[in-house]
Amino acid sequence: QLIGELGTIISFTGIGAGPHHNLLAGSDLDVDSLTFNSGAGHFRGTVNIADTINSNGGTYYFEPGANIFSYGRSVIVSGTPTGNSGTLHFLAPADPFFEFESVTVGQGFGNANAHFNSNQPFNIQDMNMIAGRIQGNSPINVHGNLSWNKGGFLTGGDVTAHGPIVLQVPN
To answer: Which of 20, 89, 101, 141 is deepest in the core (most CB within 10 A)?
Structure first.
């Protein structure tokens, strides 16, 4: 079990291709915030994140068999200064549903990817596409602002904006 008190940040750091971090079925991850710094890993147990997932490189999977209570309020996915991509795969459905205050892809350094493949709708208040890609078959509902600077939506699921869309043209 990895259980943190209020304000606890658990950080996974790896070197090379990995996978380095595997939480198997039956494991518990219950934290305020979760940070990934390179490496790779698979989460198959119970996951409950109260605040933020911050991915600074590496490839991490929340596998279909995982028991997800919450992915947190915010997701930030970015690459590294050395060009390594940051990729998160949301493959496990959440109970009862997905709801994020914000999702930011490509903050800091580009080459970021978020895969939404749980076949369950993702409800997001504000989405910021700075650089990188959103992929997957899950429907995405953006209820507030959708800001798109560069990058792409490569998805089989619908992306529906219920609020303002801001398209920014990069220089």
So the answer is: 89
